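Last lecture ended with a question: if I hand you only a sequence, what can you say about the shape of the protein? Today we answer it with a concrete record. The protein is NUDIX domain-containing protein. Below, first the input exactly as provided, then the predicted structure, then a couple of comments.
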Amino acid sequence: MLKAISDLPKDKKIAGVHCVPITENGCIVMAWDKEEQILTTIGGRLEGEESIEEALERESFEEVGMTLHAEKIPFAAWYWESTDTYTIWFLVKVDQFLPYSFDFEKTGYVIFNFETAKQMISKLEPNNPKRIEILNLAYEKARELNW
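The predicted structure:
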């Protein structure tokens, strides 16, 4: 179940972190997953004793060769009943893109505005509104922050 948040939940373990990175001109970045053949938010599971920030930084670099600014704003949580854990989505600002080989599960990234992202996702996944809901929550938070 997806819900909007402004603070990290404390009642369950946070096992996954994703982000909606925003560029300096207000566009967002999503990654192309070669196995699922879909556009995804950037992120994944925490590894070992990794902090949330460390996991976001690692996933952002591993998936698309991107570094992030320090500020990371939580805006959505998905509760996974099967594991009794949360995945948290953060709004983040892109620091820079570094040369990258795309050797993992992502083959590249797309930079676009929120509306184009939602239209493309609707075409690619017409029966799966979850990513649109996440982008709507990210858009609301970005407007609230004047990002």
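Comments.
1. Residues 2-144 form a domain with the Nucleoside Triphosphate Pyrophosphohydrolase fold (CATH 3.90.79.10).
2. The CA atoms of residues 64 and 108 lie 6 Å apart.
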